[in-house]
Every structure is written in C-alpha cells, then in structure tokens.
Design a protein that fits this description.
The protein is an alpha/beta fold. It has 12 helices and 7 strands. The chain folds into 2 domains: about 1-65 and about 180-205 and about 245-325, Vaccinia Virus protein VP39 (Rossmann fold, 3-Layer(aba) Sandwich), CATH 3.40.50.150; about 65-175 and about 210-240, no CATH class. Bound molecules: S-adenosylmethionine.
Length: about 325
Amino acid sequence: MSGFLLGTVRDIVGDDLSGKTFCDLFAGTGAVGNALKPHVRQVIANDLEHYSFVLNRNYIGNCTPIPDAKFLISELNDLPPVQDGLIYQNFCLGSGSGRQYFSDENGQKIDAMRQAIERWHQQSEIDDDCYYFLICSLLECADRLANTASVYGAFLKRLKPMAQKKLILSPADFICTSQQNPVHHADANDLIGHITGDILYLDPPYNVRQYGANYHILNIISEYKPLVFKGKTGIHRYRRSRYCSRVKVFPAFEELIAQAQFPYICLSYNNEGLLSPELIRKTMEKYGRYDCISMRHQRFKADNDLNRAHHAHNTTEYIHVLFKQG
Ligand SMILES: C[S@@+](CC[C@H](N)C(=O)[O-])C[C@H]1O[C@@H](n2cnc3c(N)ncnc32)[C@H](O)[C@@H]1O
C-alpha cells in the first residue's frame, strides 16, 4: 500500500517531492510516513493513540543515530524480571489478575524494561530520541508475543506457542535523514487548524471499532501510568474517535476537509466504510477539483503484527484526491 501510495503521490504532485511537506494525520504504525520520509523535505505525523505516537516519534521523528543503542538494548535484555509492575500485576495469570495477555515471565520482563527506560529518562541518562526509540522497540517486541488472536479486545485462555517464546528486545531501527519531523499526539480535527504543508494524507478508521479499545495494552505499556483495571479484559476508559461513530463521522470529516490548509489531500478509504464513496466525493468536490483512484485489496490474515487491523478483506480501497483551492 505504501508503495502504491508513493506512486500515486508522484502522479499527483510530480516526481520531485524533495521540497514537499507530507502530513500523515492518522499515522497508525507510521508505515506510510516512513515510506515517504526519504523522498520529501518534511513529514508531519499524528495519531490519537499514545502507542502510535510513540511508533511515529521513533520512525518519523528520529532522524539521527542513537548513541549507545546496542549497549542500551543489551542492558535491557539483561535485566532480571520484576513482579511489581503494571503488566504482570494486571495482565498476567500468575499475579492472580485473572487475565492472560502475556506469559508471566514476559509480563515481568516488559515491566522491568519499561521501568528502566522511565528511570533512565527521568535521571536524564537518555534523551527524548532514545526514550522513544527504546519504548518503540519494546512495544513491537511485546506485541509479537501477546496472547491474543488478533487485537487486545480479548486474550486467549491458553498460552499460544508464540506467547510462550521469551521476550528478547531488538532495536526498532529508523531511517536516518537530515530532516526535522514534528510528531503529534492529538485529535486530527484539533490539530488540522495548526498545521500547513503540501500533501495531506488521511487514513482514518473505516468502522466502529475503536483503536483505544483494541490496542489498550499497547497504550498501557507506552504511557505506563498506574490505573485501576476492571472487568474481564481490563480495558480502561479511552478516547473515542468520531471517525468510529456512525453519527459523528460525517460532520468530523466535513470539518476536517474544510479546515485543511494543504493543496493536495489524499484520503484512503474502502467501499465498506462508514462513509460512502459518493458522500466523500460530494464533500470533497465542494473544495476544489476531485479525482478518485481505486485498488483491489487481497484479504490479510489477522496475525500478531501491529499492521493487522489496518487492512480489510477483499475490499476496494479508494484513494480520493482533492486539489484544494483557496
Ligand atoms: C486505518 S489506521 C491508520 C493506519 C496507518 N496508515 C498505518 O499504515 O499504520 C487509523 C488510525 O487513525 C487513528 N485515529 C482514529 N481517530 C483519530 C482521530 N480523531 N485523530 C487522530 N487519529 C485518529 C487510529 O488510532 C489509527 O491509528
């Protein structure tokens, strides 16, 4: 998809993107911004979810090598597990939480690593770039070993073979460039009035499934704030997106397009989404010249990969393009 999008952006804007600012407003894993990063002058990334902010802060925001990265990763791998952490206490069976999102040992290792990263940062032993690089590395490694069928809305009763593997941290390497790329953690509609650029890429959720619920454990690892977790799944109160609400999505979308200060706007949306292709066309047409490119998608099997919820099955993916005037 990222390759397809790069080609589409070049068709729209021209081959030379080196002077352009590209904004990925619903950035998720950061895969799109990462594909564009070597080709543009600047990437602006944003997402409502904290774990996505961390992934983007590393992959998009980080542009120069992290000194001592190898050493710090091996220090974290050598830490003894701890039993007093958020993940083990609330999301592993051995603590009596009744939940089993990770094996006991992996839960204790996630806590040991996350606590050390926080301590190093608070004691100014590591800077912000390194802090987010390490949390991003931990998020991705932990996510691969989660005891879930797909997302974190539920855990499996028995530990699946992948969840029994031992957590070994590996670096979340990013592309080095000479850019300065701002990364935000905001609601898209709150941010849009405060940013400008050349190409605005929109890949909002398509359906009513809230990311804050589906990925709550990743937000807990990334924010690491002591909270009280209740109920079978332990899902805490989360920020609801208007883009996942049948009633609120259209006004939110219309407001976003009206406020956007970008000459080129590309919206990825499939034909099974809350907004119909027709409604999208009518809305975008009010603000300039409109075009639409479609691409058939193959079904992606749900697996433990942070990209998992970002692809639909056998759907037609549309890229709606607006050449915004005024
Ligand atoms: C379809 S995914 C984006 C996938 C992304 N293109 C990728 O490659 O990973 C939609 C993203 O929008 C984010 N999101 C949902 N509502 C939002 C809002 N109101 N403002 C900002 N981000 C939002 C979700 O957290 C999710 O990461």
